[in-house]
Every structure is written in structure tokens, then in C-alpha cells.
Amino acid sequence: MILGWLTLGVAGLFGALVGVTAVGNARIGARLAAVGAYAEVDGVSVHYVDRPADADPRNPGLPLVVIHGASGNLHEPRAALDRHLRHRRVIYVDRPGHGHSSRPARRCAAPSVQADVLVGLLDRLGVERAILVGHSWGGAVAAAAAVLHPGRVAGLVFIAPATHPWPGGVTWYYRVAAHRYLGPAFAWTLAYPLGRLLLERAAKGVFDPGPVPERYPREAHIELVLRPRSFVANAEDVADLKENVIALSPRYPEITAPTVIVTGDQDSVVWPSIHSHGLLRDIQGAEMIELPGAGHMPHHTHPQVVVEAVETVSRRASMVPA
């Protein structure tokens, strides 16, 4: 009898959590709807915003492709950089499974696969060469593209990149949410209500030791990661990243594209001593800008430094034969 009541109670709680998640998922989707276009690339429906240059559309320079990090979407770097890059053509991309892009399989968790999708999108847009700007997890995609598709990458700007193997693993909930069976159950029950409670703390963590910009929660659309499919995709990305960069990072010395790395010396999310300094070591001719007192989001806290890095890479890229 007691076991029966307990089973009913657990089932009721499970159903209630699924209902709360379903309602929250629908509200997020309606409030933060897609704003860009779509392209089908290797089975992925890629959502992107292709924003033309405001200055002289006949001479906008090499296009920029901005690649967001974990738990993100194209609006996150767009909120930081778009107002500062109006003179450039900028393509913002939702990585597979994030924002409003689809995710056909777990193989899409590999930066190499996401790099292939990115280059496929450039094919659809008629872009032969571009400068890639990758933040955090997106830095691994930028590096993979430079290794696997060197003729398509004119230059690289890394922002607080996550590109190299690190000691230890990842936080427990990434492993749970990435599990083939436990992941969907976790994402459809606990991820949304707990995520709502922890979003503010998570934002504070990535901006530490500085404050969270007032516009960030409104403009970055971070709530999109709380939808079950995005939550699982993000967990797979993070859970598989170490194995993927173990395989990929030995090839970084092959990269010849002009490169600038921007990092904060107080980044507590990824370790600059491993990732940023690793890229500086591995990529011949790379330059690093280390910002005193800055955390994991220098594109928000020091956007002009990132813009200057873009211009430095652009100048160097213009001197390299296509």
C-alpha cells in the first residue's frame, strides 16, 4: 500500500515537472523566437544572422563569422559586439543544437563536425574566406575549421577559448544530461525549474570578478539553453569536449592563419594558462592580449579590445595571398 502511494507520488511529481518544463519551453520559444534565416547543411538546419556592413557595402573587408560558446546562442556575442562592428559584414551562427539550429545526432558534439557545418554554411552564402571569431567552446570550432579547412579561414580571433585538454573532468550535471537515457529525463524534469533558479548565479560566475552588464539577461537570450533539446545538446558538447580536443589539439601547429587571442587573467571558467597560452605556443605568429582583472566574457567587458584584435587580424590577412 505504502509502495503504491509512493509510486503514485513519484509519478505525479514527474508529470508535474514535465508539465512545468513543457509550458516553460513553449514560453521561451515564443518570447525568444528565431530572427534570422535557415540553411540546410549536412542534415543540420542552421539558424544564422547575416548582417551586412553599414559603412561601405562595396568594400566591407573580409566577412566575420562569430561562434558562440557553451550554454549560448548567436544573440550572446551579438549583444556584446554588434554595435561595435557595424562597419563589417558579420555572420552570427547558432551552433548545432543551440539557439534555433537543429541537432540530428550526438556526433555534432565534435568541434570538427561543427566546423564542417560552419564551412558548409559559408558555401551556401557564397563566402570563400572569412575571419572566425570564437568565444570559449566556440574557440574549439574555430581552431578545428583552421585545421580542417585552412583555405577557408583567413584569420582567427579567439576570446577566452576552450581548446586544450585540462586536468579533471566536468561538472556532474553535464555527465547526467549527456547520458543517452538519463539525459532526456533530466532535461524534461529538473533542468528548467533548477535552471531558472540558477541563471543569475551562472551569469555572475562567467563575469566574475566584474559585474554582469545590465543588458545581458535581456539581450543574450540565455534562457534558450533551458529548453530540453538545447540543454542536452549543450551537455553533450561539454561532456565530450576534452576527448575531442585531445584528438584535435596536436594539429594546432598546422594553423597558419593570422591569430590574436584575447583572454582575461581572472577567467575561472577556462584556464588561460592551459588554453590561451596553449594556442599562443601552438600557432606560429599568434599574438595574445591578456586583460588584467577580466573574467570569461571579455567581449562584453572589453569589446573595443576584441574589435582591435579583429582589425589586426584583418590587416594581416589582407597581406596573405588567398
Structural summary, described in words:
The protein has 322 residues and is of the alpha/beta class. The chain has a domain at 35-167 and 245-316: 3-Layer(aba) Sandwich (Rossmann fold), CATH 3.40.50.1820. It has helices spanning 2-31, 75-81, 111-125, 137-148, 172-178, 182-189, 191-207, 216-219, 228-248, 276-282, 298-301, 303-318, and strands spanning 37-41, 44-51, 64-67, 90-93, 130-135, 153-159, 259-264, 287-291. Strand 1 (37-41) and strand 2 (44-51) form a beta hairpin.
CATH class of one domain: Alpha Beta
| Biggest sheet descriptor | 8 strands, mixed
**Share of helix among residues?**
40-55%
Assign an overall shape.
globular
Radius of gyration: 20 Å
Which regions have little confidence, pLDDT < 50, spanning 5+ residues? Answer: none
Number of strands: 8
- Give the CATH architecture of one domain: 3-Layer(aba) Sandwich
Helix and strand composition category: alpha/beta
* Mean pLDDT over the residues: 93
Put simply, the count of helices is 12
End-to-end span in angstroms? Answer: 76 Å
Short account of what is shown:
The protein has 322 residues and is α/β, with parallel strands linked by helices.
Q: Notable features of this structure?
A:
322 residues, Rossmann fold, eight-stranded mixed β-sheet, 8 strands, globular
